């Protein structure tokens, strides 16, 4: 069975109550593209309000703690996201790997926590610029995959987002051939480790400066099942052309 396209907005640290209107506009118009799964990951503070405003919408968290509860001031546990109405969580975003010092083992534990709470998980990987320039990008990303993807999961609930760090928020994008080569390598590594379900059911997203102008090309690259979108996901005007391109 063909994998459904998946376009996910990562609002990062943007959005207040008034921004719920943008989410309503996005989800309403996304209904015209029933063949595409559309999700938004707003800041934690907006998850409950977004779910209430758009019942049934796919709303997610941008991170979770690996523990179920405890003395972790400022953190949010995966079951709390589920309790707030989220159905997915992003883990391993480079802004957390780099900015918060998260290791592959941390990311793996968070992915396990998300799956354990019944959430779908989008697990991010991606290389820094100097690694890309040194020609080691595929080895680097495959090592992240080896270290951060859990051993046991339902392949329909775990997606990988390939997000080259140098492409995030910069307006720079890899060539379509480079995206296809990376996604092919990721797919091959997953298939070798997990077999058929990973080969057939896991979705591989591309992320990094996707916009309405480049979405068709990037989403048309080999083994790209959708996009994780930052800056261009904040308004319907910018996000919907990407959904339409998928
Ligand atoms: C992201 O933060 O996941 C991302 C891809 O950001 P942008 O689309 O702004 O590059």
From TrEMBL:
Residues engaged in binding substrate: 10-12, 169, 209, 230-231
Gene label: tpiA
Record field: transmembrane: none
Subunit structure: Homodimer.
GO molecular function: triose-phosphate isomerase activity
UniProt subcellular location: Cytoplasm
Family: Belongs to the triosephosphate isomerase family.
Protein name: Triosephosphate isomerase
Domain of life: Bacteria
Main location: cytoplasm
E.C. numbers: 5.3.1.1
HAMAP family in alphabetical order: TIM_B
One Pfam family recorded for the sequence: TIM
The protein's enzyme class: isomerase
Pathway where this protein functions: Carbohydrate metabolism; erythritol degradation; Carbohydrate degradation; glycolysis; D-glyceraldehyde 3-phosphate from glycerone phosphate: step 1/1; Carbohydrate biosynthesis; gluconeogenesis
Gene3D superfamilies in alphabetical order: Aldolase class I (3.20.20.70)
InterPro entries: Aldolase_TIM, TIM_sf, TrioseP_Isoase_bac/euk, Triosephosphate_isomerase, Triosephosphate_isomerase_AS
Organism from which the protein derives: Sphingopyxis bauzanensis
Keywords from the named record: Cytoplasm, Gluconeogenesis, Glycolysis, Isomerase
The protein's role, per its UniProt record: Involved in the gluconeogenesis. Catalyzes stereospecifically the conversion of dihydroxyacetone phosphate (DHAP) to D-glyceraldehyde-3-phosphate (G3P).
